[in-house]
Design brief:
- It is a single chain.
- The protein is α/β, with parallel strands linked by helices.
- The protein has one domain: Rossmann fold, CATH 3.40.50.
- It has nine helices and four strands; from the N terminus they run αβαβαβαβααααα.
- It has a four-stranded parallel β-sheet with strand order 2-1-3-4, sandwiched between helices.
- The protein is globular, with a radius of gyration of 20 Å.
Length: 282
């Protein structure tokens, strides 16, 4: 196809696509302080990964969804915070519209830790209301399911983020030689010490990720240590390594099998669950 991004297609191209397939990927992003990387870095990562998934499975991508629950980072004044409830309601309306337009298989994808609070709840509520299963893929959880990954995900995370900008043709948006500040630190020990000083830290271990207790970072730099990029050549080298890692993840997730399973869940619901328990479920 000329492009996989829904909004870059003409209406005629979308309608032609829907004559042969019904699959769309929805990367759900965030706009928040992220060290020396741009505020939309985790949105860009989600968009790049879903683009690769769409290319693998003949799907489309609905992008430009960058404003959702950020979590503990509003202490960085570039962060845009959206409540979990408002984010759920917005995504639900998008899912409903996509379904009416013919996209029965919808795959929501995030690379941001607290995003599950928004997306998981929407996915479950949407199914109970419509009886149409839509899938949520949390990048962190999905990578943990891959048994033979050739690299450590967290060690490659920033390379993949920079690689995502390259995939989208935006590598120059990643700045060089960013000075340390309240928003940026290159000192891992400093970040870890700051994290230990947050009273919520031990309580956060009592539930999944950000779901245990509300808190904010005391400084924006506490959120994330990011790489110091001095030259365009260094940036290109990290981007190349990141693109390679993203390609490996998408390949080993076997996305064609994933989207086929989504279809099978839909058929099972229509042909087994609803006929058998219809009066309770409808």
């Amino acid at each position: 196809m000329r492009t996989r991004f829904l909004s870059k297609l003409t209406n005629g191209e979308v309608e032609e696509y829907l004559t042969r397939n019904d699959l769309i990927f929805v990367p759900v992003g965030v706009t928040e302080t992220h060290g020396a990387l741009p505020l939309d870095s985790e949105t860009v990562l989600a968009e790049a990964v879903t683009l690769k998934m769409a290319e693998e499975t003949d799907g489309l991508v609905l992008h430009n969804l960058p404003y959702f629950f950020a979590g503990a980072t509003p202490t960085g004044r570039g962060t845009v915070q959206m409540s979990i409830k408002d984010g759920m309601a917005y995504l639900d309306k998008i899912a409903e519209s996509l379904l009416k337009q013919g996209f029965r298989r919808q795959v929501y994808f995030t690379s941001h830790g607290p995003a599950y609070l928004t997306v998981s709840s929407m996915v479950r509520d949407f199914f109970d209301r419509t009886k149409v299963p839509v899938l949520y893929i949390d990048m962190i959880m999905a990578v943990e399911s891959i048994k033979d990954l050739s690299f450590n995900f967290m060690e490659k995370f920033h390379e993949m983020t920079i690689g995502a900008y390259s995939i989208l043709g935006r590598l120059e948006d990643v700045p060089l030689n960013v000075s340390e500040s309240n928003s940026v630190t290159y000192d891992v020990n400093k970040m870890m010490k700051a994290m230990q000083n947050i009273p919520a830290a031990p309580l956060g271990k009592l539930a999944y990720q950000s779901g245990a207790i509300g808190y904010y970072f005391d400084e924006a730099s506490t959120h994330m240590v990011t790489p110091l990029l001095k030259t365009a050549e260094e940036r290109e080298a990290l981007a190349a390594a990141g693109v390679e890692a993203i390609n490996e993840i998408v390949k080993k997730l076997d996305m064609n099998r994933v989207v086929q399973s989504l279809k099978e869940v839909d058929e099972y619901t229509k042909n087994e669950s609803i006929p058998k328990y219809g009066e309770w479920l409808l």
